[in-house]
Specification:
CATH topology of the largest domain: Heat Shock Protein 90
Distance between the termini: 118 Å
CATH superfamily of the largest domain: Histidine kinase-like ATPase, C-terminal domain
Helix content: 40-55%
Number of domains: 5
Largest sheet: 5 strands, antiparallel
Strand content: 15-25%
Oligomer: single chain
Number of strands: 22
Number of helices: 21
Shape: elongated
């Protein structure tokens, strides 16, 4: 830019100072000694100064004193400016500590600091431009709070939805098992499948929420059993695989180690997403899940003969919400977050992912993750999630009863939801487990002080606190009384996150699982922990199943086939009714059936069955509790079945 002739230096300086004074933001410059040389009007206003001359020559300390800046902020400005002067390099987009305007408002600035050079390229000072981003920060904070509120709402709602949904899943499974009519059994199965699909839908919504949470960026390294994990995943997908008449192959390298160190939860999730996608997009043929360990990395792959992925879509399948098929016309449901989560976890675990696919032929996705193997001579199990393998259980069961630990009370199940509690009681009874129940922390803690349990299974959300608090109380009590540690398993209706798993571990829990308690989970726990069973031994005299001499006194031999045929029909119906009454703990019905079956046995010469039914009836009349009644019920069932088998031999 040129200036008019005879323009003085003062005029030129004034000219540029006027331009700078009118610039937006805060503009200021300093010499190499960090003394102020000039600024625009915004800086003067902020410091409460009237003239530029008041600003010139000020140090950062003096400006801080004038404006009342925090000492830490003043030091940060000075250090950043000195760094630019000493290095001769600009520092851009630096978010500054908040400082106060003379009007009392606290402001946040985004600053660019650039060195000023002389003609011979020597640093002569520094110029800074600071833009007020206070409003932007306020909006960011408001957005963050709103987003957190949304996530919290969805997670809380998921808990409220999962709890009754878990009841539907559990009850429909019990109905399917108990019903005898084929059509009714199928209806119960459809309710179970539909509720499982609803749970899957809920989980997929929560996956969308989870991908934005900070806790999902945490990696929790622990030991886990890979083969057991794969067995569980295969079992989970098998009903859908069988329904679609597909083949599911598992190809594990012969030298594959069993125990690894890594984030078990994330590996399980990414494998479940890969396997679930393969099952979803394959209508015929087969799916293969494989694993090998080489060069310090665990390589996992899922191969399918499904529809494949079009070439132009293969670079986009890991995008959040992307679906390779049209949402309106596709028969495949989902929200397009599964593979996005897989890629997210692979990056967190510092691994690699490769996709090979041909349209209408199939897809193979391979994930390789750097991972250490647990040494074979170390007995290490995950503190956050047990490997649930049959390790010491078989040895315990092979030893005499007197040498086993005496957990007289068996399992303590803590749950405040009546539906979930009813389902758990049925499962525990069906598996002949000794158990006690509680619905609050106070009730559970009182039982823990009075009894020695083999295992505690507790809901996380309880009326008077959390399952974590119960676990902490239990651990403190054991420590103070020098008692052995009781394994504690948590059940939650919330989404399982790394943070939740860590919370459970810190509270002293062995593991944390999603609700509901399933038969499979219970059986896994029975394998991993010695859970005392109810003995089915009953002090009974040795009696014949069929006393022919008694039968001859009641009916001629040529009528025995007809008599036994009627006996079989009656017994089969009574056994079904007896089982249903026991599962419902309907004592009135049990007493009626025991008396009826005793009479049937009497007129058929079935002495052992008659005595077994009589003992059951007597135990019911004496108001025996469910735990003590169990042996009589089991003995009756076994004796009736043995009698029916004997009659089959006779009729053959």
């Amino acid at each position: 830019m040129t200036h008019p002739p005879n323009t003085s230096i003062e005029d030129v300086v004034y000219y540029y100072e006027t331009i700078i004074a009118s610039m937006p933001g805060n503009v200021y410059w300093f010499d190499v000694n960090l003394r102020a040389q000039g600024c625009n009007q915004n800086v003067l206003d902020m410091l409460g100064l009237n003239h530029l001359q008041e600003f010139k020559g000020l140090s950062f300390e003096e400006m801080g004193e004038i404006a009342g800046w925090p000492a830490a902020a003043t030091e940060a400005f000075k250090t950043a400016s000195m760094t630019v002067i000493n290095t001769g390099k600009a520092k851009l987009n630096i978010e500054e500590p908040p400082i106060q305007h003379t009007n009392g408002q606290w402001l946040t600035f985004l600053t660019h600091r650039v060195p000023i050079f002389t003609q011979d390229k020597k640093v002569n000072g520094m110029i800074g431009i600071s833009l007020d981003i206070t409003r932007r920060k306020q909006l960011e904070q408001a957005l963050k709070k709103a987003n957190q509120a949304k996530d919290d709402f969805i997670r809380n709602m998921s808990h409220d939805i999962r709890t009754p949904l878990a009841g539907i899943i559990g009850m429909s499974a019990l109905l399917e098992e108990e019903l005898q009519d084929g059509e009714e059994k199928n209806h119960a199965h459809m309710v179970s499948v539909s509720s499982q699909q609803l749970l899957t839908l809920l989980n997929s919504v929560l996956d969308i929420v989870a991908t934005g949470r900070q806790s999902e960026a945490e990696v929790i390294v622990q030991s886990f059993n890979l083969k057991t994990m794969i067995e569980h995943l295969v079992a989970l997908e098998m009903p859908t695989v069988q329904a679609k008449q597909l083949k599911l192959k598992v190809d594990l390298d012969d030298d594959l180690p069993e125990q690894f160190y890594s984030d078990e939860v994330k590996i399980q999730r990414l494998l479940l997403n890969l396997l679930g996608n393969a099952v979803k997009f394959t209508e015929q043929g087969e799916i293969e899940l494989g694993a090998r360990y080489e060069n310090g990395a665990l390589c996992l792959w899922v191969r399918d003969t499904g529809c494949g992925i079009k070439e132009h879509d293969q670079t986009r399948i890991f995008e959040k919400f992307f679906r390779a098929t049209n949402r309106d016309t596709s028969v495949y449901n989902g929200h397009g977050v599964g593979l996005h989560i897989v890629e997210h976890y692979v990056k967190l675990l510092k691994g690699s992912i490769k996709v090979t696919s041909k349209w209408q032929i199939g897809t193979t996705i391979t994930v390789c993750l750097p991972m250490n193997v647990v040494s074979a001579n170390l007995c290490i199990t995950s503190s956050a999630a047990p490997t649930l393998t049959a390790n010491t259980s078989s040895e315990l069961l092979a030893t005499p009863l007197s040498s086993k630990k005496n957990h007289t009370a068996g399992v303590l199940f803590v749950e405040d939801n009546n539906v979930a509690l009813t389902i758990a009681k049925k499962y525990l009874t069906q598996h002949r487990l000794r158990f006690k129940t509680a619905q609050t922390i106070d009730e559970a803690y009182a039982l823990l002080q009075q009894h020695s349990f083999a295992l505690v299974i507790t809901d996380i959300g309880l009326p008077d606190g959390t399952g974590y608090e119960l676990a902490a109380l239990c651990r403190a009590f054991e420590y103070n009384k020098a008692r052995s540690v009781t394994p504690i398993i948590g059940l939650t209706a919330r989404t399982l996150t790394a943070a939740e798993q860590q919370h459970a571990t810190q509270a002293g829990m062995k593991a944390l699982f999603n609700k509901p308690l399933t038969v499979r989970l219970l059986e896994q726990l029975m394998e991993d922990f010695y859970l005392p069973l109810v003995s089915i031994e009953v002090d009974m005299p040795a009696l014949p199943l069929i006393d022919e001499s008694q039968l001859k006194n009641m009916a001629p031999e040529d009528s025995w086939p007809e008599l036994f045929d009627l006996f079989q029909t009656e017994c089969h119906a009574d056994i079904v009714a007896l089982t249903a009454a026991w599962q419902a703990q309907d004592r009135s019905a049990l007493k009626h059936l025991a008396h009826k079956m005793k009479s049937t046995a009497l007129y058929s010469g079935a002495q052992a069955m008659q005595a077994a039914c009589q003992h059951l009836e007597k135990a019911l009349q004496q108001q025996t509790d469910a735990t003590e009644l169990e042996p009589h019920y089991q003995h009756c069932q076994v004796t009736v079945q043995a009698t029916l088998d004997k009659i089959k031999e006779f009729l053959a």
